[in-house]
Amino acid sequence: MKAAVYFGNGKPVSIEDVRVKEPGHGEVRVAIKAAGLCHSDVSVLDGTIPYPVPVVLGHEGAGVVESIGSGVTSLKEGDTVILSTLAHCGRCVACESSRPTQCRNAPSPKDSVPFFVGGKPAFQFANTSTFTELTLVREQSAIPFDPKVPFDRACLIGCGIMTGVGAVLNRARVEPGSSMVVFGVGGIGLNCVQGGVLAGASRIIAVDVNPQKLELARTFGATDVIDGGKENALEKVRDLTRGGADYSFECVGNLGLIQTALDALAPGGTLVIVGVPKLGSKFEFPVHTIYNNKAILGCRYGAARPRKDFAMLADLYLAGRLKIDELITSHYALDDFQRALDDLHHGHLARGVFQL
């Protein structure tokens, strides 16, 4: 079978013949039908996320259960599933308190080696590896969904949509009638915008330097847009919100933007850091600037509860309340990986989707 494999040292991703193990206890093998290209995949390539190699890339996917291992009780062959990067244990206090992103009992995804390339072991990325025709995951990472949702739409629920919408609904818990600003409206930021719509925010401001992305943000529900390359974003946000926003979301992973997002808050406001800076990055700020009840929140995977949230997001899509069709800019064959990567680098994609 074919898979997109990264061998490290800045080499281009190559499409290789790969073999995957049979499912063991508590595991399922999934035939991937569609997989989204996300900036987290790029973060492996540029070293922002250090990862052992060779690694089969991809983490945003949907497909069909091809086979199951012993002990699997929640799935059967033929089930349609969205893959979750969250390999939580399901038994600890965090998991049983609907906080599975805080689970610390699950094995490290960097320890999983279910693939073979040229007869040698290859690592799995983010508990999933979706740029492949077949992958092997733990039962907890394969979440059933309504098959009325097309695979190329469903796959985006597994990361980009969950992360963005979840940052708003689960982590920030944006209150109806409040104001919010989203810095960076790529795939994650656009979903923060529509998360604000679902939460009932009265003013949703999108900030970016790409005019195309800002126009797309309007279609997703942004009430105002700011071109950060032409305007002073901080001054404009303060003007639009009469002094500062109730919530801000930084979706780029840029330390300067994190500071701007903090400064853009009103007293009592909340900053949610969604973007991922390079590992080891440090952010400094004068402590007195948050004494007026400002809060800074980290956010892992939209504080997801996959079995609950994925079904909810699929239902919202089917009800016409969640935009997914509009997220997809282009479809690609896996052999077109480099073209998709180039399109992403040039800012042409909200989301590119591989069809396998």
Account of the 3D structure:
This protein has 356 residues and is α/β, with parallel strands linked by helices. The chain folds into two domains: 2-144 and 324-355, Medium-chain alcohol dehydrogenases, catalytic domain (Quinone Oxidoreductase, Chain A, domain 1), CATH 3.90.180.10; 164-300, NAD(P)-binding Rossmann-like Domain (Rossmann fold), CATH 3.40.50.720. The protein is built from nine helices and 18 strands. The chain has helices at 39-45, 93-96, 151-172, 187-199, 211-219, 233-240, 255-263, 306-318, 337-345, and strands at residues 2-6, 14-20, 27-37, 55-56, 61-68, 80-83, 115-117, 120-124, 134-138, 142-144, 179-183, 203-208, 224-227, 245-250, 265-273, 295-298, 328-332, 351-355. A hairpin with a 2-residue loop joins strand 7 and strand 8 (120-124).
Brief characterization of the structure:
This protein is of the alpha/beta class and 356 residues long. The chain has helices at residues 39-45, 93-96, 151-172, 187-199, 211-219, 233-240, 255-263, 306-318, 337-345, and strands at residues 2-6, 14-20, 27-37, 55-56, 61-68, 80-83, 115-117, 120-124, 134-138, 142-144, 179-183, 203-208, 224-227, 245-250, 265-273, 295-298, 328-332, 351-355. The protein is globular, with a radius of gyration of 20 Å.
Keyword list:
single chain, 356 residues, alpha/beta, Quinone Oxidoreductase, Chain A, domain 1, Rossmann fold, 6-stranded parallel β-sheet, 9 helices, globular
